[in-house]
Amino acid sequence: MVTQGLNPEQVAAFNRDGYLLLPGELSPARLKALFDETAKLLSDFRLEDHPLTKFSTDEKAHIGDDYPPTRCVDRPKEKAINKIGHALHNLNDELRADTINDRNSAIAQSLGFKDPLVLQSMIICKQPEIGGKVPSHQDSVFLYTDDCTAENGALSFVAGSHKWANVAKRMIRLGGNKMGTGFITLEGVEPPREPTEDEFVMPPCPAGTLVLIHGSLLHKSETNKSQKSRYAYTFHMIEGAYDYDILNWLQVPPTEEGGRNFTHLYA
User: Fold this and answer.
1) pLDDT by residue (tens digit) across 164-197?
2) In principle, which of 73, 115, 170, 226 could form an S-S bond with 152, CB 3.0–4.6 Å?
3) C-alpha–C-alpha distance, residues 129 and 125, integer Å
4) Digit-coded pLDDT (tens) for 32-65
């Protein structure tokens, strides 16, 4: 039986708005398995063995190793971790199964990908009360989310902004005597204007929803004001038919032949 991708109406909606929500992609049983695996990952490690880094979409240096894993504060680590990443699709069997599969391949194919490569994958933890606001930004994201509401910091989007919001900066490896990463401004590119609050929309996002987001779409999330963690599993895809810039902040060890070593979504 051939696995179906997006139908023509869904493809048209994604191209128009720059995002698409697909409720019911994960069953309750599958969601429970992923929540259990997330709880295990959050508890089964020693803080003493890990560098502590801070994730931010702001233009600040992002210091850490190739796969910066955590951000912690003075509270139990299970309620303090900001992110687990960035190669879960290669390192964790449960999460790989929800990344490299026929359904995701069919969706990518219906969106016109020739050779989609999984660049990175991570669990984003919007923790109670400290899960802060993420300002308007752009990236290429596929998200599996739990119940997302205005109270716990759900995503909101500026529909259609992928058509007019130029990508005017890049996050790169600093190199030289500097550690970590930083942002550069692209010459000759007009930065996008900051959207007004009434331009953002927050569609319903029940547990098990697959969220597709165009890389140039402006989106954000607010502070988690609830008493419950809000988890999202996300992975980024790039088109393998194009060159991957060596200045990109995230690099993986090359293959023995010297090529790129990202994971192919298509078998």
Assistant:
1) 999 998 888 877 555 578 888 989 999 999 999 9
2) 226
3) 12
4) 999 999 989 988 877 666 655 555 555 554 444 4
Does the pLDDT of residue 260 top 50, yes or no?
yes
**Is 146 inside a domain boundary?**
yes
Task: Extract the tokens encoding 1.
Answer: 């039986």
Query: Is 72 within the bounds of a domain?
Result: yes
Query: What is d(CA 168, CA 191) in angstroms, rounded to the nearest whole number?
Result: 5
E strand or H helix at 17, and its extent?
Answer: helix 8-17
CA atoms within a 13 Å half-sphere pointing along the CA-CB vector of 142: 24
CATH number at residue 91: 2.60.120.620
pLDDT in tens, 21-41: 999 999 999 999 999 999 899
Domain of residue 29: give its range. 8-251
Evaluate whether residue 105 is within a structural domain: yes
How many domains are there within the chain? Answer: 1
Task: Specify whether the CB–CB gap between 191 and 169 falls below 8 A.
Answer: yes
